[in-house]
Amino acid sequence: MEQSANALVYHATPAEEGVRLDVFLAQRLPDVSRAQIQRWIEAGVVELNGRVAKPNVRLKAGDEVYLEPPAPPPAEPQPEPIPLQVLYEDEHLAVVNKPRGMVTHPAPGAESGTLVNAALARFGKLSTVGSPERPGIVHRLDKDTTGLILIARTDLAHHALAEQIQQRLVERRYLALVWGVPRFQRALVDAPIGRSESDRTRMSVKALLHDPGARPAVTEFELRENLTVCSLLEARLHTGRTHQVRVHAAYAGHPVVGDPVYGAGRSATQYGWKKADARALDELIERMGGQALHAYRLTFTHPVTRQEMTFTCEPPEDMQAIIDWLRAKKEEARE
Fold first, then answer.
1. N or C: which end of the chain has fewer CB within 10 A?
2. Domain residue ranges in the chain
C-alpha cells in the first residue's frame, strides 16, 4: 500500500480485541469527534487490513487500521451559535467553562463545533496572535477534559497572558479522579514529556538526553480524598505540555479514570471489588464518555487592570456523579 505523507497507521493490541472501529480511532485521535470519525468510515477513507472498512466493524488483535484524513480545514474558522458557559468577560478577555466533547480549536477532522467557533459567535472579534485557525486561544484543554479556559479578545491581552503562562505566573489547578490510592499526600512529578515512538498521537515520559523532542514537564499532585478504589487528586501545572496531567498521573501509577489512552483496561475488579459493584462503576464511567479530569481553578493577572483574578467551577455532573457514588459505597462499607 502506498502511503501519503499525512497517512496514519495503527495496530490493534490484544487489549483492544472486540473494540468497535470508530471507538478505537476515537481513542487514538482524542481531538477528533466520534461523529467525524464515523463520517470518515462511511466515506471510505478508513481501511482495515488493506480493505475499505465497514461501519460498526469490531477489531481483532493485530488488525491494521489505515486512515488518510481529508485536507485541513479552511484557515479562518467561522462563527457558530453554540452555547457557552461564560464565567467572566470584558473587552480584553473571557473565561469559559469548556464542556466535555468540545475541541478547543479547528483541526483536521474537527473543522467545526469547536470552542473557537463558539467564541467567535459569542464575542465577535478575537485576538489574531498565532495560527489563523486558533484565534483567541492562549492555552488549550483536551477534547474530553472539562473546565476553565482563557480566551483573549485583543492582541495586547493575548501577548500579556501568553507571557504570564510562559513565566509560570498563571495558576492552573485540576481535579482528577484516578485509579487506586496513592501512598503520597503530596508529590511533585518532574518528568519530561515527548511523543511516543510507537504511536505519535500519544505522549510519554522521556529522557531529555536521549530524546531531543522531549520537553520539561512538572506537575504537583495532592491527595484530596481517598475513595477506596479511586482517589480524588488536585493537580497543579507548573508547565503546560500536551496531555501533561494524564501522562504524569499514569506515570505515578494512578491513571485518570475514564482515560481511553493512558488508563485503558482499568477496572474496579482489579482492586478487589465485587463484580456487581465494579460493573456499576464501569457503567458510570462509560456514561461519562471521557477522562474524569476537570480544570477547576484558574488564577492570573488581568493584562490591563493588573488585578489578580481567580475563577473556580465545579466538576461536570457526570464526573460528580461518579465521585458521589464512590463516596456512598465507601460509607456503606463502614456500616
1. C
2. 8-67, 85-167, 173-296+316-334
Cα–Cα distance measured from residue 322 to residue 232, given in angstroms and rounded to the nearest whole number: 11
Which is the CATH superfamily of the domain at 8-67? Answer: RNA-binding S4 domain (3.10.290.10)
Span 117-139, pLDDT tens digits: 999 999 999 999 988 889 999 99
Q: Would you put residue 85 in left (φ > 0), alpha (ψ -120 to 50) or beta?
A: beta
Q: Is 324 a catalytic residue?
A: no
In angstroms, rounded to a whole number, what is the distance separating the alpha carbons of residues 333 and 273?
11
pLDDT digits (tens, 9 = 90+) for 218-272: 999 999 999 999 999 999 999 999 999 999 999 999 999 999 999 888 888 887 7
Q: What is the CA 110 to chain-centroid distance, rounded?
A: 15
Active-site residue among 31, 63, 142, 144? 142
Can you tell me the distance from the alpha carbon of 251 to that of 274, in angstroms, rounded to the nearest whole number? 27
Domain 85-167: CATH class, spelled out: alpha beta
